[in-house]
Amino acid sequence: MSVETFSINETVNVTPEAAEHFRQQLEKKHARAIRISLEESGCTGFKYVIDEVDAAEASDLSIALENGVQLFVDSSHLEAIQGTVVDYVRQGINRNLVLNNPNVKNACGCGESFSV
Length: 116
Hints:
This protein is of the alpha/beta class. About 20% of the residues lie in helices and about 45% in strands.
């Protein structure tokens, strides 16, 4: 049996642009934190769920971003999320959150789901 350990700071990295986007969303929604989790979905396996929340769930890890935003990460999916970089990018006139996850093995053609 092996035990995998995780450093909270290496679990999810958030770019300054994404942190600012999160701050603005929290301000609009009058919420206290952002929560990142996974749920089963689509033809490949999982999709990201990013919510504005007021409190962590019992199993969440808490990460304080440099701009004061509180980020909660669902610890039940740490193995699948570890190393993910969250960015907020401009593509033409669109702006989108982009999650670059080094653990993704397959993604469906429409981009809805992925497997690890």
